[in-house]
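[Meeting: bench + compute handoff]

Bench side (C.D.) handed over the final construct sequence. Compute side (W.E.) agreed to return the predicted structure before the next meeting so the bench team could plan truncations. Sequence as handed over:
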Amino acid sequence: MNRPDGAFISVIVVTKGAGDYISRCLRSLDAQTLPPAEVIVIDNSLDSGFSRKLKCDFPKVAVYESPVNLFYAASLNKGVFISRGEYILCLNDDVVLDANFISEASRGFFAGKNIGMVSGKVFRDDAETIDSVGIRPDIFRRAKEKGYGKAAGKSFEKEAFIFGPGGAAAFYRKKMLEDIKYDCQYFDEDLIMFYEDLDAAWRGRNYGWRGYYVPSAAAYHIRGGSFRPDAGLNKPFARRYLDNKMHAWLIKNRYIVMLKNESAAGLILHIVPALLFGLLELAYAFFCRRQVIRALKGHYWIRRALAKRKYCFPSRY
């Protein structure tokens, strides 16, 4: 099977400077058997000393220091815009790659027609538990990570087509990102963080692109390392460990992605379970986290999602 030359591959890592995650991530990129043409770090730490240390420790890495926290979607957009590669690997800073990750994952782009996105086998940090082998919308239209929390086994050893890659380690064909771009955004900045991976995959599929899973490309992810307290790392029911603003994003982003990308038939089919799940979310927030309800006020995001819907289907331009 063919693979792209490393000269055509760019890597974008977004960091807030938490812990020592970014150093672990960059060292694993240094060790790749197929080195990428460039590694771009978008630094949201708001600490010029942190950026200077990164540049000193990793002189080959292009570090872009942001004066404000761009969060994940806008940071990726900045990275993709300045990247030169035809294939773009987007990484959380709390991910470490196996030395053969880029070499193996990049093969996936040649496994069939119109493959625009690739996932490897992303483990938890224990190297035994699956974190994600792809993402898809479930019946409630949540972003469902395939394999999440399961023990690695034979069922995850076969290459396969998938809906799309999870955002922790998502490989994209630049042509697909250009196809789905709207208003200079590859990833919808209204999502801020959470669900941007499902949104990009769904728009890509609406444009005829496909996702592929390559199990021989291994990565290791400390889930929540970038924004959860230590007690919440790799734990389920993530919203317990989110602040009120992030919790509100998690709730509204599910609706934004569904309203933008779901077909009319899909909306009819899934609206009841999606709304029932939404009622459970709001009940939890009302009784346990009332500040989340306040953070959800204002319906401008619903109108914006519906306005963007026409750009999520190629026939509607």
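W.E. noted at the follow-up: The radius of gyration is 19 Å. C.D. will use this when planning the next construct.
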